[in-house]
C-alpha cells in the first residue's frame, strides 16, 4: 500500500515530479500524469506572465554524478496557460498548481484568481526560487514569509502548501515552523535546491552555467543529507495536520524510503527525473516496494516518520 492523503486528496502512488522538472508544457505535464507510477503532478511555477528565463547554458549535470546545478530563471508559459491546464485536464490524479510571483502582490493576484476559479486541486506557493537576479529566496526572510501567509489566508480557502528552501540551523527550523504552524497549511514541501552553489569545469577552469556568473541552485545526490534533515526537522516541529512532501537527492528506492522515514507523505524527484526521464518513477517505486517487502512492512504508514535515533 503505497498511498497517501493530503487535504482529502488521495494519492495512489507517493512519487511525483519536483516543480520545474518535466512540467513546463502541457505535453510534459501529461507525461507525468500518464505514468502508472506517479500519484500526482506539479506544474512549473507560474508567474503572472510568460517568461523566457535566463540565458543558456542554464542547467548542468555534474560529470561525477553527484548532482545538478541550474539557474533557469523561472522560464514558464505564464499563469493563464497553467490555469487553463489545471482546470481543463481530465485526470484522476491530484494536480499541484505551483505559483512563484516575483513580489507579494504578484502572489496575491495569482492566488485571488485561483480562489475565484473552478480549480479544485492543491496550490504550492513557491517561496524559495533562488534564480531570479535581484530577487531573494522569500522564505529566508521570516518576517516577509509570515506577512505573505497572513494576507494569503485572509481570503484563500483552497488547499495550499509552501515550497521551502533548505535551512541549515536548528534555530531556523524552530523559527520557520513556528510561523508555519500559525496557518492552516495543507502541506509543506522541503527542499528546493540549495541556492547559489558554484560548479567549475575542470578542463577550462570556467563556471558551467552562464547566469549570475555561474551561481545556481544545486540538486541531486549532494543535497540528500540536507533534504532529509529538513524533512525530519520540520516533521518534528509542524502540526500533524500539515502534511510533508520530501524533495531532494532522490535517485533510488532507498532514498524514497529514507524521506518517508523522516516523515514525508509524498516524495518528489527533480534532478534524477531530468537525467533519467519518466521511467524513473517505475524504477523507484519497484525499488521501494522491494525494500518494504524485505523489511516485512505492508504499508508506508508503518514507516512514515519512524526514523530511529540512537
Ligand atoms: C527556478 C528555480 C527554482 O528552484 C524555483 O523554485 C523556481 C524557479 C528557475 O530557475 O526557473
What is the assigned CATH homologous superfamily?
A: Aldolase class I
Number of helices: 9
Distance separating the two termini: 29 Å
Gross CATH architecture: Alpha-Beta Barrel
**Count of DSSP strands:** 14
What portion of the residues fall into strands of 2 or more residues? 15-25%
Question: Main sheet: which strands, in order across?
Answer: 3-14-13-10-9-8-7-4
- Detail the poorly predicted runs: none
Rg value: 18 Å
Report the CATH C-level class. Alpha Beta
Please, could you describe this protein's structure?
- With 310 residues, the protein is of the alpha/beta class.
- The chain has a single domain, classed as TIM Barrel (Alpha-Beta Barrel), CATH 3.20.20.
- The chain has helices spanning 26-34, 79-88, 104-116, 142-152, 170-180, 224-237, 253-261, 271-276, 280-295, and strands spanning 4-6, 9-11, 15-17, 41-42, 59-61, 68-70, 95-99, 122-126, 160-164, 187-190, 194-198, 215-219, 243-247, 266-269.
- An 8-stranded parallel beta sheet has the order 3-14-13-10-9-8-7-4.
- A hairpin with a 2-residue loop joins strand 1 and strand 2 (9-11).
- Helix 4 (142-152) packs parallel to helix 5 and helix 6 packs parallel to helix 7 (253-261).
- It is globular and about 50 Å long.
